[in-house]
Amino acid sequence: MTTVTDGARKPAPLPALRPLSEWPRLTSAIPRDAEVERRVAEILGQLTLQEKVGQMIQPELAELTCEDVREYRIGSALNGAGIWPGGKRHASVADWVETIDRFWTAAEEAWRDRPFRIPFMWATDAVHGHNNVHGATIFPHNIGLGAAGDPDLVRRIGEATAREVAATGMDWIFAPTVTTPRDRRWGRYYEGYSEDPAVVHAYGRAMVEGLQGDVTALRTDGKVLATLKHWIADGGTENGSDRGIARCSEDVLRNIHAQGFLAGIEAGAQCVMVSFSSWDNPANYDHTPGRAQPYNHKVHGSRYLITDVLKNALGFDGVVISDWDAHAEVAGCSPGDAGYAINAGLDVLMVAGREDWQSVYRTTIRQVRDGVVPMARIDDAVTRILRVKMRAGLWDKPRPRDRALTAPGTGIVGCAEHRALAREAARASLVLLKNTPGLLPLSRTARVLVTGSAADDLSKQCGGWTLSWQGDDVDRADLPDGTTLADAVRLVVGAERCVVDPALEHADPADFDVALVALGEDAYAEMRGTLKPWRSIGYADLKLSYARDLKVLRRLDAANLPVVSVLFTGRPLYCTEEINLSDAFVVAWLPGPYAQSLTDVLFAAEPGAPAHDFRGRLPSSWPRTRDSAAVNRIPPHLPDYRVPAEETAPEGRHTPLFEVGYGLSLRDEAPPTGPLPLDEPPEPPPAPAVDGPLRVLDAQGTPYRLRVGGHNTWSGKDVPLTGPMRSLIVHSDPVPAPSGAGRAPDGSAPGGGGTGLRLRFRGHPAFFYAESPTGEPADLRGHLEAGAHVRFLARVIEPPSSALFLACHDDYPAQPGVDLAPLLRQAPPEQWTVVSVPLAELDAAGMDLRHVDVPFMLYTEGTALLEIADVGWRVP
Questions:
Q1: Is the pLDDT score of 813 beyond 90?
Q2: Which single residue of 236, 503, 634, 848 has CA 20 to 30 Å from 225?
Q3: Is the N-terminal amide bond of 441 cis, ω within 30° of 0?
Q4: Is Transmembrane a UniProt keyword of this protein (predicted)?
Q5: Where are the beta strands (DSSP E) in 276-379?
């Protein structure tokens, strides 16, 4: 009999929270220092207004030059996910150090003629390791760490991450995320540690301690500045909407959504990033009433939450930074005007686009001179910036290339010690939901069939924020030392006893002792990972490729082959039938690229090696139904807690299938093995009848809101029919539409006349779409039953350089599309032609025609120049 041990110490229970009736005054582990304050005041008194505003501007690498740093006295910069030195995806550590050193040197040159200097500061998104740098260690995403229940493990991960970030010459990271996620439809759900605020509280403290250390350690080369994000309640929005609206009470805000911030600030966090979301509450007042455009409750514009609460009530004296271009979403602001948000309390403005950050710079200076933005507000912001730079020891640190950890040959980034820690963390995060006695651990001599969509897929294991923003384009070249689950199984049992067949197209189940079925969500990050309010959270309901995993399980069940299922996911999903069809079911979350961590636990230990048991416990409630998206445990520290309107009480049909804290070990007596009750989907109503074509864009204009979104512009930018629109990703211009040009395949003449659009796709991920002005979906299945086509006129001026997709949603590539590039490349150049795609083809691709809020979308990551007109759904 195999003896199973934990292979590691058991973490101590987390401390209980106490209810808060008011905002507490916090004591930071990094207190005020009189000498620092004196030096800050001395420098501040010598700065010009222009120099002060330059310190407040933070552009990104692709939109900033060294000359800009010298001219504008820019105080900091960042590299966004998917932005690398010289555009090199596999830029080396030396490339990063050299790039950051050049900007640091430019800043030094900017102050050469002044009696003081202000060091430059570089920031990056390092949310599960130094994840934007090729070769860095990738740790499990936060939801998996939450399952581990071990703050000390998180502290050690923070220490390792800080060392790798510092080894590339960077000073500042945008982590940890201390949200308390409450709706599984949110695309950032996995960035939260748990729905339990006690876990978030403990982990927020631990990660800050790991990244920064104490007041002395923070000044050394091996530590970096931490950023608590996103202030506040980004995980509590209605319907899990990204950049949505939280409507909870201030008590819920304080006791549920603030807990990670409270602990992190006490631990000494020096930076807080503000949330894109809104808080709709009477306390969130308009600090400049009487304007033509009333305040829209965005947290970026909330003087109450930023200044009154965070800075004054809690006593936070560090830097408050905006999210990526988020000031532009505040009423009264724009991409080039951040005045209202600055007055709310923002200290550093993360403004990506070159024209935009330069406009913010000029506009802020003008607003100070005009009295719109008080000089005292600017002085407060710059005081905080200088204070944090001094606390980080930037005046004492040498240039980036001369720091202790950046020297060639140090080998810190991706070192064996850190990867062993990542493997330990992934092992600790595995949650065993079901087990059949005697099945696990598997024998090392078993004949193993590895199947399922995630069997051999590093992207599914790692999730978003892995080398690129969405992480959906990651391959083996990006993670050269990564191992998929299939790789790891081969290493254990040998290639001769392991067959990998993800779709179960070739293998015969009768040839094997056991099947390992790897289920997995495709990688996603914010926005593109968010599910619309009407979507099911059933795994097999989300994509056709996921439904094929369920079919594989059914085939294996019919073959009577023992099945161990492993689910890679960023959120709890309804998958009861998948559990029923499995003899053992493991939730692996997003463990990262080192799948040996899974086989360490799934298989018996090698002779003389420690065996490992399942230690993970659910950090979030597991849904019983397809619509239990916002069901959370009643917080035990709040005896009078009332479930907010945007959440669902955990009772009746919404009682969790598995509660927070559930998880089996191999020593546990298995619970009854009878099948779990299924939540059968209701029969859809009959398709509504249609009485004519669906207009999208024609001679009368459009009933929809025309927009573009994509790289740097995912929140959407309106496309007018009356004039040009320019953005980084798409240029649009109105053009006259032809009248009667071209003929449809059935011989009928198309429509025409009125206004069309010229669209230039500029080589970035981008989509043009027609959106319902109310945001509500329409049931358009009647058009399918009538045999309708999506039809439009197109004039191809420059054919697509890569795939160009048509869809009836704005979720590509999260949801499917039909590639029009081959058709458009064959069209007569610069002549109007008819493009007609049967709705049946879109339906077969997996599009949801019952819930259509975007009846027309074109998406490409390449270049193209085409004109479109007379867009609609028509029956031939």
A1: no
A2: 236
A3: yes
A4: no
A5: 278-279, 319-321, 349-350
